């Protein structure tokens, strides 16, 4: 009896683990993703360093909403272009990864520096099936995500915020502050050298 119970538990756990191999992504997305992978690995990747407009056109062809005069480096990577929105004068720096299993919105004049990683997907670890969980990410206008910083699923980075190099952000970041560390914490307000109207910082 005890052996039977153990076997039943083992079989259930094995079935849950096997379920990880079942993709929740619709076939149409897989086909679009395959075509995009080819385009991103060739026409996008091997275009001239300064051809940001060309890369913006390619992203738009696959459904991205890209603003005017954006800087998009050829080594940046976007997983699902149709889930990306990027405001005017935004920047995707070298080797930036936008792993947008969920929607990602980058505000006007926001900058993502080298090797920043934007991750809008995770898994429910309370189940051995580990089903996919997606949550949108928003990076506000005039925010700066510094080199190698990580932005996790569901995070909102406020307008004008600065996320320090190598920071790990798993909670919302207030506007016009500087955060750093793992996990990221507010270290100070972002004070601007010039007067900018309507800039408000937390507690100020």
Key features of this structure:
alpha/beta, 204 residues, 5-stranded parallel sheet, 3 helices, UDP N-Acetylglucosamine Acyltransferase, domain 1, 7-stranded mixed sheet
Description:
The protein is α/β, with parallel strands linked by helices and 204 residues long. The protein has a single domain, classed as UDP N-Acetylglucosamine Acyltransferase, domain 1. 22% of the residues lie in helices and 25% in strands. It has helices at residues 2-18, 27-44, 52-61, and strands at 65-66, 71-72, 77-78, 84-86, 91-92, 97-99, 104-106, 111-112, 117-119, 121-123, 132-134, 137-139, 144-145, 150-151, 156-157, 162-163, 168-169, 177-180, 185-189. The strands form four sheets. Strands 2-5-8-13-16-18-19 form a seven-stranded mixed β-sheet. Strands 1-4-7-12-15 form a five-stranded parallel β-sheet, covered by helices on one side. A hairpin with an 8-residue loop joins β10 (121-123) and β11 (132-134). The chain is flat, with a radius of gyration of 20 Å. The mean pLDDT is 92.
The neighbouring-strand order within the major sheet is 2-5-8-13-16-18-19
The percentage of residues in β strands lies in 15-25%
- Give the low-pLDDT segments: none
Rough outline: flat
User: What gyration radius follows from the Cα positions, in whole Å?
Assistant: 20 Å
Any chance you could write out the topology, listing elements then pairs?
Layout: H1 2-18, H2 27-44, H3 52-61, E1 65-66, E2 71-72, E3 77-78, E4 84-86, E5 91-92, E6 97-99, E7 104-106, E8 111-112, E9 117-119, E10 121-123, E11 132-134, E12 137-139, E13 144-145, E14 150-151, E15 156-157, E16 162-163, E17 168-169, E18 177-180, E19 185-189
């Amino acid at each position: 009896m005890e052996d039977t119970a153990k076997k039943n538990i083992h079989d259930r756990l094995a079935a849950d683990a096997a379920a990880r191999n079942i993709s929740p992504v619709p076939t149409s997305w897989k086909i679009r993703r395959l075509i995009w992978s080819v385009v991103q690995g060739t026409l996008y990747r091997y275009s001239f360093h300064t051809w940001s407009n060309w890369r913006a056109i390619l992203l738009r062809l696959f459904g991205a909403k890209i603003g005017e005069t954006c800087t998009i480096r050829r080594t940046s990577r976007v997983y699902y272009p149709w889930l990306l929105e990027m405001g005017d004068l935004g920047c995707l720096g070298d080797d930036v990864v936008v792993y947008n299993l969920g929607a990602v919105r980058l505000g006007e004049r926001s900058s993502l520096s080298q090797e920043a990683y934007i991750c809008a997907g995770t898994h429910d670890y309370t189940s051995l099936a580990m089903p996919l969980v997606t949550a949108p990410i928003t990076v506000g206008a005039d925010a700066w995500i510094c080199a190698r910083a990580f932005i996790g699923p569901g995070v909102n980075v406020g307008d004008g915020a600065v996320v320090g190099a190598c920071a790990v952000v798993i909670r919302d970041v207030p506007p016009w502050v500087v955060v750093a560390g793992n996990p990221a914490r507010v270290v100070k307000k972002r004070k601007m050298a010039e007067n900018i109207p309507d800039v408000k910082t937390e507690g100020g």
